[in-house]
Amino acid sequence: MDFEYYEILEITKHAGVDEIKKAYRKLALKYHPDRNQGDKEAEEKFKQINEAYQVLSDTNKREIYDRYGKAGLDRQGFSHFSEQNYEDIMGDLGSIFESVFGNGFGFGSSKRRKSSEKYPSDLESEITLEFNEAIFGCKKEVHFTYKSPCEECLGSGSEDKIKTECPECYGKGQVLYRQGFMTFSQTCQKCHGAGQIVKNPCKICKGKGWKEIKESVVVDIPEGIDNNNRIRVAKKGNIMQNGNRGDLYIFVSVKNDELFIRDAQHIYIDMPIFFTQAILGETITIPTLRGKKELKLPIGAHDKQQFVFKNEGVKDLRTKQVGNFIVQISIKYPKTLNNEQKNMLKKLQDSFDIENTTHDESVFDKIKSWLN
């Protein structure tokens, strides 16, 4: 597909994370296949929107795209659209439609807790890692707060442990309403889907039926973890009324590095060199993830030329294969020259027998004829 990601999402290159997400949701809803059945143009547009969002919502991929364009992503085999991504976008859009139309819209496949449960068994937390911690792995202490049934009311939320049928949904936990010719179901707002209400709230938990407990756990961060990955810690989630405890899911965020740019298992570095180094084909020292490396430049190396060091990148979490380290050179030229330097460069130019004109007079005669 030949299109510009910022144009597709109708945003500027300075758009922030919230603006990107807002633009994506708006356009994804507009061009979603279920709302444009049989419209191949809308389907293609929807895929473009998804592809653009996948890149611009990811800090590392966006940085590579801004600096190298699609070629930088394609070089490493970045997949613009996949079934997994399609399922992710469906789930996200499902939550959007639910917020507008309620749970009965029939969109997405996210799991929901039973109406009798006051909270989900699984718990989510976040952790921010330094760039090197994600590359090489480490141990981190994670602090979180989980829920446990109130001991006073045994999780009922009722002081007398008595609940009555919700008068709004008549115990169903769902209410129906019509919009145009369609009928939707929505979680009952009075009982929050439980189907029952409490008339005498527990004084300890204020009718919630649960209490919050702070805890911490030391987690082994695996080598090669990246943004948006998550770590599962078994039996560290919320405690349910039956005594079972869910899992803790820790979502990972990784800080950017001033020198290195990461794209999955590959690492990029922009290496400034002086123009004479490129002309002479000198050997330069490159800082890598694991120490110094020597790079022998070819004589006449050009600006933005890339050089690949195999197996010097990041280890893949699943395959354990190590990615590449890519050096892109950026040729720098002097902004001013003194007379001596000008004379030296003039002599060098003369030594190559460089003529003042690169084309014979017939070329200029041809251009003149265009203007007459």
Strand order of the largest sheet: 10-11-15-14
Q: What overall form do the CA principal axes indicate?
A: elongated
Share in helix: 25-40%
Oligomer class? single chain
Question: At CATH's second level, what is the architecture of the domain at 1-110?
Answer: Orthogonal Bundle
What characterizes the major β-sheet? Answer: 4 strands, mixed
Any idea of the CATH topology of the domain at 1-110? Helix Hairpins
End-to-end distance? 41 Å
Q: What is the assigned CATH homologous superfamily of the domain at 1-110?
A: DnaJ domain
- What CATH first level of the domain at 1-110 would be assigned? Mainly Alpha
Q: Would you tell me the structural class of the helices and strands?
A: alpha+beta
Q: Compute the number of helices.
A: 10
Summarize model confidence as the mean pLDDT: 81
Strand fraction band? Answer: 25-35%
Number of strands: 15
Element-by-element helix/strand order: HHHHHHEHEEEEEEEEEEHEEEEHH
Provide the gyration radius in Å.
30 Å
Please mark out the parts with pLDDT under 50 across 5 or more consecutive residues, or reply none.
Answer: 79-115
